[in-house]
Amino acid sequence: MKNNIVSNRRLKMQGLKKRLSLGSAQKIELPSVAKHELDYPLLIAIICICAFGIVMLFSASYYYAEQYLGDGLHYVRNQLGYLIVGIGIMIGISHIPYTTYSKPLVYWGLYFFLLVILGAVLVVGSTLQGATRWLNLGFISIQPSEFAKFILAILLAALMTKYKQKVKTFGGLILLGLLIAVPAVLIYFQPNLSMLIIVLFNFIILALVGGCDWKQVLGCCIVGGAAMIIYLKTGDNYQSQRFALMNMSWEELQKLSGDEAFQIVQSLYAFANGGPFGQGFDASRQKLLFLPYRESDYILPIIAEELGFVGVLLLMLAYLYIIHRGLKIARNCPERFGSLLAVGMTIALAVQVLINAAVVSNFFPATGQTLPFISSGGTSLLAFMMAMGVLLNISRYTEKNKVK
User: Strands, DSSP E only, in 79-226?
Assistant: First the structure.
């Protein structure tokens, strides 16, 4: 009788644990394939885009830096410093087994660290142009949201691997969504609409790749997208004003005197001036104090003006090559976590390039977002170099005969 009672209690406890658990956890280990050299074509492509970025940053920033900072090489010198450090970090991370990030202590530690620094930004962050996105550490200012897209990709990849069956349920999707919602809300209040969009796009794509029901994901997207459009169209706020500018005609934009309209107009002038083949290197007129943030968020219009449509097309093809390599690494990684992590790192890059190009061409509300590897911005450069280091490490464990 006593044994039956103990047995029943054990069965009840097991049932309770099963109901409370996220599903059966899967142990994550390195693939059994032989470790080999990293993806050198990917590495070379990254270095080439960075080098191109330094050259174009010199052209875009020299006049402004000389006039207002007394040092024409100010932005180039800073970017070179970050680039050298970033390359070192990228190579170092490429030697760290990617399964390190699948350990709960690591991915939960990164997640809560992200929440702390995003929260700190709202409390003690520096404000510029109506946005509070920077954390001044004394010797350096960082933009924590730049790391959000990659840290959240690590978290999602780990959870969707360990609880593969649970994420296929609606409850699993909602739980993942709640984990993303907390940092997303903190980013929203900075406000940083473009970074919020990048984080949400990454979540949607990883959810689909990770096995979530596409109908459920689509339903959440429709509801969330409709709510955001209604909010932007009917609200009287920072984001709504920028959304309104995006929907204005060229004639309406020219009549406005606000700073945001001025920036968009000058950006479009730069694209128009460039034509098919551009005005020539260092021949941009818009960089002569007409176009604001020409060295950072709006460097693409300067590239378009100097190198034309052909130059922008070649740059986009270079980005596309990196994205192609990243997705190929994901496809050929024989282990689920590595594959999802590679997708996360790659899609974050792809979406940010797309958002930046859409902003400067007025297809997306104007908001500060760098062009990866090219725009002046130390935090952005370091974040992307770290992500590429993770991607390069995953490439060491792919089925070698498939990644060519």
Answer: 126-128, 131-136, 141-142
**How does pLDDT run along the chain (404 residues), one tens digit per residue?**
445 544 555 544 444 333 333 444 566 766 666 577 899 999 999 999 999 999 999 999 999 999 888 888 999 999 999 999 999 999 999 999 999 999 999 999 999 999 999 999 988 877 776 677 888 887 778 888 999 999 999 999 999 999 888 888 888 889 999 999 999 999 988 878 888 888 988 999 999 988 888 888 888 888 877 777 776 666 556 666 666 666 666 666 766 656 667 888 888 899 999 999 999 998 999 999 888 889 999 999 999 999 999 999 999 999 999 999 999 999 999 889 999 999 999 999 999 999 999 988 888 776 678 999 999 988 999 999 999 999 999 999 987 655 45
Q: What token pair was written down for 240?
A: 């709504």
Token representation of residue 311: 């130059």
* pTM of the entire predicted model: 0.87
User: How far is it, in rounded angstroms, from Cα 135 to Cα 138?
Assistant: 9
For residue 360 the two structure tokens come to: 């400067």
What is the rounded CA–CA span in Å between residue 33 and residue 397?
Answer: 6
Report residue 29 CA to chain centroid gap.
Answer: 27
DSSP state of 166: G
3-state secondary structure of 131: strand
**One-letter amino acid of 141:** S
CA atoms of 166 and 341, how far apart (whole Å): 18
Closest C-alpha to 384, from 337, 357, 339, 350: 350
**Cβ contact 86:385 at 8 Å:** yes
- List helix spans (H) across 103-192: 104-124, 145-162, 170-188
What distance in Å separates the CA atoms of residue 36 and residue 404, rounded to the nearest whole number?
A: 13
Tokens of 161: 């691997």
Token digits of residue 119: 């929260």
Q: Please give the backbone phi and psi of residue 142, each rounded to the nearest 5 degrees, phi first.
A: -120, 155
Q: Residue 55 and residue 376: Cα distance in Å, rounded?
A: 12
Give the β-pairing of 141-142 and 131-136: antiparallel
> How does DSSP assign 76-107, residue by residue?
HHHHHHHHHHHHHHHHHHTTS-GGGGGSHHHH
The number of CA neighbours under 13 Å toward the Cβ of 144 is 29
